[in-house]
Amino acid sequence: TIKPNTLRYYEKEGLLPHVRRSQSGIRRYTEQDLEWLGLICCLKNTGMSIRQIHDFVELSLQGPATLKDRCDILRAHKQEVEAHIAELNRYLQKVNAKIAYFSQQYEAYQKLEALCSCGGGGSDSSDSSGRGNSSGRGNSSGLIGSEIIGSGSNA
Question: What is the pTM for the complete model shown?
Fold first, then answer.
């Protein structure tokens, strides 16, 4: 859904140059207008600036003599989008690696907690939370700074 303010802005910027109006001034969008609007939203949502979209629309209004220029603009934009997707995929790999790392750490932590709670107390001191703390460092998990953010190649 596109907000009315956005439609007015696109029209003011010359991105929708041929929108017809009724006698009372109400905009009447044709199928072609909606097709243009779909392309504008696609280009904007993939990072093309309003200025670049405006230039593309201006070329389109000049007719078939500008087809090559329009293809060149879209090809260049496609390369930028693909580069951005590749960058996002690298970030996603990092997030997935962190999920795997922390899941493994959490499973080890749970096993350690289960072992500690089965022992029945004994020599553990208690911290202010009432949980056992055999390390004497106030960190019953045994995790330190580098383990919290992940260490090694997973960081």
Answer: 0.68
